[in-house]
Amino acid sequence: MNPSPLSVSRRAAISSLVAGSTLFRGIASELAHGADAVLGTDPLLSRPAHFPPRARSVIFLNMSGGVSHVDSFDYKPRLFEDHGKTYQVPQIMLQAFAANNRAAAKFFKRPDWNFAQHGRSGLWISDMFPHVAQCADELCVINSMRNSHADHFQATLGMHTGSVTFPRPSIGAWISYGLGTLNQNLPSFVVIAPNLPYAGTQVWSSDFLPGCHQGTLVSPGQEPIPNIRPRQSQSALQRIELDLTQAANRRHAQARGGDPLLDARIQSFETAFGMQMEGPEALDVSKESDETLRLYGLERGSTKGFAWQCLAARRLIERGVRFVELIDTGAGGNWDSHGNMADHGRLALNVDKPIAALLRDMRSRGLLDETLVVWTTEFGRTPFNSAKDAKGREHHAESFSTWMAGAGVKPGMNYGSSDEHGCAVAENEVHIHDFHATILHLMGLNHEALTFRHAGRDFRLTDVAGNVVHDILA
């Protein structure tokens, strides 16, 4: 009597395939008729939200290094008027300065860009972002953001995980865990970045959540995901081989009492197979029209730059990816303009037109009605500095700007405000916990109910804080 096809070891199964054993037909038959009990439940299956969502997906635009709020979206006329005047800096804001440069007396520095009102809404936006300014009536600008740390590593962690001290799952991983994927052949969470950001891979880590929810890194270039092209020309045969391998893998996992790392490794084979089927087409922009490429400012044939990232993000969202994060630079060569704010101009030139194109393109296709677009940075920059003639600005977590657009948020709106110089929040503070709670709410997730049991307690993205900012909801 032949042994049960699913009772053989992984090594024996592979050997039987290589040898052309008659076991293969039985294995294929059993896989086709109910091996689900062995293969287990797919943790990426789409799951219902806690309540009707306003958005089904998120595009998270992360400007690494700290974009100056007072040079971009937070217009402060008094900062122009009081340029060079002395300001006694509160102790908490001095932590961003070097230990030998923490004298309280600093000097206000005027913005390096001029501001104007834009659109029917009259939002104030600087000429650093002329293309985004033309989309003012789509934006809900928040000028009262606050982070809990003013160093890049910790602030980047905070913006992504809610924690500035300990590694935690990223917001994209939490959304994947809560809702699953809309397309079994693509990851639920994708990160497109040219370089590693501050905090490295922790930015898209699943940490203690099941490993299948961590972000899949895509790098702009000729091969965005290495080795994604299938070597096996017959996809049906490759599917049978994978099913056999996965069945043996599940038995292997069950015999070891449940190992999250092993489960993640097993799930990665399924994700990789799906990516081979749909990933290359999803990231191939060559079939986009000349008109679309011109809109983004992307040369035909180019696979680099933020324009390619934005267009790839739209294509991924169209195909059911839940959460796409775009990082414009990395841990170097970014918006961290200590020495000269002129760097902001160069960096804005890279992202301004593509971001505006993304908003317009998604609006024209009806995608903005079901997608939340978030633009953010880990903190702002000081409205003051140590010298009257200082050309740069330091880190500033006490008040900065972000914006949202699309599904579920009020368009053409400014929410919250900083004081007359942009130094501290004056009205309607939005802490990173509130920010995260609001994004989850728009996705139909209750931030207090989206929890995971780990190390004896229930963890959540917003820890023990966070309030949904209902005033910005449409």
Features:
474 residues, alpha/beta, Alkaline Phosphatase, subunit A, nine-stranded mixed β-sheet, three-stranded antiparallel β-sheet, 14 helices, 20 strands, 32% helix, disordered N terminus
In short:
With 474 residues, this protein is α/β, with parallel strands linked by helices.
Tertiary shape: globular
Whole-number radius of gyration?
Answer: 25 Å
CATH architecture of the largest domain: 3-Layer(aba) Sandwich
Write down the domain tally. Answer: 2
Look at the structure and give the CATH class of the largest domain. Answer: Alpha Beta
Largest sheet: 9 strands, mixed
Secondary structure tally: strands: 20
N- to C-terminal distance: 67 Å
Segments where pLDDT lies below 50 for 5+ residues? Answer: 1-6, 14-40
Arithmetic mean of pLDDT: 88
- Judged by helices, strands and strand pairing, the structural class is alpha/beta
What level of helicity do the residues show?
25-40%
Fourth-level CATH superfamily of the largest domain: Alkaline Phosphatase, subunit A
Structure description:
The protein is of the alpha/beta class and 474 residues long. It folds into two domains: 1-34 and 234-277, no CATH class; 43-225 and 283-472, Alkaline Phosphatase, subunit A (3-Layer(aba) Sandwich). Helix content is 32%, strand content 16%. The protein has 14 helices and 20 strands. Strands 1, 6, 7, 8, 9, 10, 14, 15 and 18 form a nine-stranded mixed beta sheet that branches. A three-stranded antiparallel beta sheet has the order 2-3-12, with no helix packed on it. Strands 4-5 form a two-stranded antiparallel ribbon. Helix 9 (235-254) runs antiparallel to helix 10. The longest helix is centred in the middle third of the chain and has 23 residues, at 260-282.
